[in-house]
């Protein structure tokens, strides 16, 4: 608090309103608040975070007109949603900043605007009003390679110049991204790229040791400095920013399980599964004989609660060995001594949360950057197994056993523990993330 009064700088953070983006942005806000900055969080009305969870911040909601724009919220229409938010929120955001300038305390200054890279309108507003704009990306830094390296160089750079990243198949990703892009996709890409070029800095939720090769290449091309201060959740451990209610009962269930015996199964906040998938997963888990904690969130199976689709005889077979909940306090779950494996959709937050607790992963990506994250996990860091092709109960059972029990999976389990130790090193005072955070605060 004392520090805050001395340093009367305010940072304005602009949220992209989905769980996988809200978490890292609020964690970053907590980290910067700890460094003495006052924090204002500007967010669209849709999926508003609960301000009472973070009373130390000022929250400002701006109209997003999403209802009027009749935008679909399905993952496949995500580019149209990004476009609508950028179009609808720019003017209200500018108005809100002007109002803040009119009302501000005489000794306070707005030191900068930090925005989720998908809310690129914030860079334009920052430029108009003369504030530094800083983008934050809640994805692997490798995703930034597509943005900072000029398009004509993609092929040669991705094919020859970064041998460590060959397993990511970046060239294949570029080819598939450039096949039949929709108008919305091309517009978002061009606008986000343009904003990145004008930003004063970029903040990445990653660690130097995890993405060294990608980061060196990015720094070679990027006009703005890049700060790697991840994993944010370890530097801001105490905050809760879940949009769904977390089920605390799963922690007392975990307390009763033996160390490293539980496979935790969660596909994040956006991915969806078919009815058939649920049946195969249920039998795969049941037949693996391992205890499991499975998140079936509302909407995981479109149009259903999910649990009513569990097959007959499943509950009788698993009894107390299985715990099914709608939403967990995931960071706490992954840090629990009973958890020995994580079947994940490979969202970047889930990936970092698992890496930092040394939990090996069973990987089943669905869309977007999840495929790249899976390739990092399984083929670059070698701390997971890919679950490919059709979801089928026998394959699921085999993969769980291999990951958690069999001698074949031992190397993966050991490697995962090594990365946990390296993560701890990064977070020490002289570690790369702490040093990068100090450099960022100097710049701001
Ligand atoms: N999460 C959670 N409880 C759950 C499932 C997920 O708290 O039951 C959190 C998880 O810790 C992570 C975020 O939701 O921080 C999901 O982000 P991620 O990038 O992994 O995936 P997305 O939801 O964006 O696909």
UniProtKB/TrEMBL annotation:
Q: Which UniProt keywords apply?
A: Glycosyltransferase, Transferase
Record's PANTHER family? GLUCOSYL/GLUCURONOSYL TRANSFERASES (PTHR11926), UDP-GLUCOSE IRIDOID GLUCOSYLTRANSFERASE-LIKE (PTHR11926:SF1133)
SUPFAM superfamilies annotated for this entry? UDP-Glycosyltransferase/glycogen phosphorylase (SSF53756)
Task: Provide the protein name.
Answer: UDP-glucose iridoid glucosyltransferase-like
- Membrane spanning stretches: none
Organism annotation: Durio zibethinus
Q: Which Pfam families match?
A: UDPGT (PF00201)
Family statement: Belongs to the UDP-glycosyltransferase family.
Name one molecular function that GO assigns to this entry: quercetin 7-O-glucosyltransferase activity
